[in-house]
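Figure 6 in text form: structure in, sequence out.
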């Protein structure tokens, strides 16, 4: 991707410092960031905000796991004719024997908090708003997104939407589950605003998602560098593009659904509450019409990152570029047709059968990606650094997540597994084992570019090992809990389940240790890390053309696209020498068909 000096007249950015260079004192710099329209700064602000939300949601998860260490139960017995209640289990965190009810209710608030924060404030904006915002314009060769001011607005909508959520938590949190199912959510806590605040938070956050999606769609259509056709774009862009389409089309549905919920709750108009002539199953259809496609808003950007990591760190042309690109759009399209698989137990047989059949369709474009990723690794020069290790971890954990979705898509098995820990394990393997694992891999891949510093590789690999072990110990055990009938959302359980719950809780502590190691390694990198070169991994996409960290306007001159993003066998990477990254042998041409004489 040679650059043509089309920009000399008045557009030369040679003397420009990096986007991180503070221009004035502390207050000036803070104001500069608070009012910035630079996609990189907005991306970095989102990154720290969503990681903070991950920390909050993670703390709630650890408390949930701690409570589940013991089968906390209230035992009532008659002693000398008097009924005496006692709490069994050593760690009745917040239960009081007399009012045992309170304990379970606090548990309900904790897992709701965990789920609502993790879904609406962490994982939906996680990759698109942070790494997408930072790298989509640069990978296209653009100076910024199409609507920089709208981008800043979407950040502030996210910021204030999260404030509503945090306010609701401070006021004691909600106990409805992250799905806010009616009529419980429209009737519980009648004299409290915390349910309305949390629902309002999800409603407002939706607009940030829509605006971000809109911005990315126009940027991809309008701001590609000269010479960059659709099939010259990095696959991360295709994935974020497909995600943006879902964000723009699906999010309004959850918006109006939550508004109707608030309306019924405040003005007692029957929409979902059967006691007022409403239909609670209608709410479930509306809710999942958004919440199933949104799981692809979570996973598609992660899949885009994996395509980048596998190609760059195996120095191999991606296998089946167009198939992977189209499968992102295929997943986006099919994702709107399968929401019914979340409510098989609330629907009739015919419509359930239809949704079950459609659900299996999703497996096709997903499998295309997984097979093409594995084919890319075949005969690659694989470098087992942290980004690649995370990509390989993703292939393992995401495949388990995907495959365990099949018995949940099949009617017979789903009726047994619905609302059990098998479901909890499945979606954690997809959301945590998919999106979070890919995001951590992506952060390690792009960290040198974002902050201009290298990090300790041994430290990062230790973190990766602890995350991998901790994650699988925490969630693989939960498949067995679910198969044996352990229901989700229960604060107590029969003794038979205790061993598996204990192993799962110990796993969550190892997982915590892994993330703390990563946190320490990144802080050390910012404080004392070696300066990073412009292209430490020998990547070919435009972000590796820019400086590390990039200058304010990304490039000194407007870049020109002259080859594909993964032509490792043809091009010496920018800012690198052929000695550093020798051209790998070009893939042997297909052998000519043998003529059978
Ligand atoms: C950090 C490690 C995590 C641990 C240890 C963890 C643990 C758990 C547990 C034990 C439950 C089940 C609670 C119950 O049904 O009684 C749960 C529920 C849930 N988790 Fe996680 N989780 C983690 C990360 C995540 C992530 C990254 C996400 C998504 C981004 C997530 C989303 C959810 C959701 C949506 C629920 C359902 C909450 C509900 O039933 O309302 N979790 N989690
Ligand atoms: Cu679904």
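Output sequence:
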């Amino acid at each position: 991707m040679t650059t043509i000096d089309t920009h000399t007249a008045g557009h030369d950015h040679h003397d420009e410092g990096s986007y991180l260079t503070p221009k004035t004192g502390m207050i000036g710099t803070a104001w500069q960031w608070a009012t910035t329209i630079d996609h990189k700064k907005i991306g970095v602000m989102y990154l720290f905000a969503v990681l903070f939300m991950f920390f909050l949601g993670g703390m709630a998860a650890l408390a949930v796991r701690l409570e589940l260490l013991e089968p906390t139960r209230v035992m009532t017995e008659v002693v000398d004719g008097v009924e005496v209640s006692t709490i069994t289990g050593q760690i009745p965190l917040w239960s009081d024997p007399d009012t045992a009810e309170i304990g379970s209710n606090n548990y309900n608030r904790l897992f709701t908090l965990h789920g609502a924060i993790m879904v609406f404030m962490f994982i939906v904006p996680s990759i698109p708003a942070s790494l997408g915002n930072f790298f989509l314009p640069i990978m296209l060769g653009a100076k910024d997104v199409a609507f920089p001011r709208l981008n800043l607005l979407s950040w502030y909508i996210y910021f204030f939407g999260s404030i509503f959520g945090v306010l609701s938590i401070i006021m004691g949190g909600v106990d409805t589950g992250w799905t806010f199912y009616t009529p419980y959510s429209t009737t519980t806590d009648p004299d409290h605003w915390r349910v309305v605040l949390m629902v309002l938070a999800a409603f407002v956050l939706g607009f940030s998602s829509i605006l971000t999606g809109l911005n990315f769609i126009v940027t991809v259509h309008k701001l590609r560098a000269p010479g960059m056709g659709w099939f010259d774009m990095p696959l991360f862009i295709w994935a974020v593009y497909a995600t943006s389409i879902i964000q723009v089309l699906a999010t309004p549905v959850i918006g109006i659904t939550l508004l109707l919920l608030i309306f019924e709750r405040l003005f007692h108009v029957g929409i979902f509450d059967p006691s007022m002539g409403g239909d609670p199953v209608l709410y479930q259809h509306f809710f999942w019409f958004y919440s199933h496609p949104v799981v692809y808003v979570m996973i598609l950007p992660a899949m885009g990152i994996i395509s980048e990591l596998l190609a760059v760190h195996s120095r191999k042309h991606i296998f089946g570029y167009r198939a992977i690109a189209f499968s992102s759009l295929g997943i986006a399209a099919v994702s709107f047709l399968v929401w019914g698989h979340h409510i098989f137990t609330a629907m009739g047989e015919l419509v359930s059968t239809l949704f079950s059949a459609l659900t299996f369709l999703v497996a096709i474009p997903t499998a295309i990606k997984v097979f093409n990723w594995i084919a890319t690794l075949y005969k690659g020069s694989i470098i087992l650094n942290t980004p690649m290790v995370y990509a390989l971890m993703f292939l393992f954990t995401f495949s388990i997540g995907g495959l365990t979705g099949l018995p949940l898509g099949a009617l017979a098995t789903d009726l047994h597994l619905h609302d059990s820990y098998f479901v909890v394990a499945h979606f954690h393997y997809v959301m945590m084992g998919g999106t979070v694992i890919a995001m951590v891999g992506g952060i390690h891949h792009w960290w040198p570019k974002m902050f201009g510093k290298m990090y300790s590789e041994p430290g990062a690999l230790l973190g990766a090992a602890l995350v991998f072990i901790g994650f699988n110990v925490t969630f693989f055990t939960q498949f067995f809990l679910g198969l044996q009938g352990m229901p989700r959302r229960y604060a107590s359980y029969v003794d038979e389940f205790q061993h598996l719950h204990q192993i799962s809780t110990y796993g969550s502590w190892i997982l915590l240790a892994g993330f703390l190691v990563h946190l320490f390694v990144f802080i050390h990198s910012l404080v004392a890390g070696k300066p990073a070169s412009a292209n430490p991994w020998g990547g070919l996409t435009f972000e590796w053309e820019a400086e590390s960290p990039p200058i304010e306007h990304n490039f000194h001159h407007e870049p020109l696209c002259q080859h594909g993003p993964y032509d490792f066998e043809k091009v010496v990477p920018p800012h690198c020498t052929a000695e550093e990254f020798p051209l790998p042998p070009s893939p042997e041409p297909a052998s000519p068909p043998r003529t059978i004489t």
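Caption detail: The chain has one domain: 2-6+26-70+90-561.
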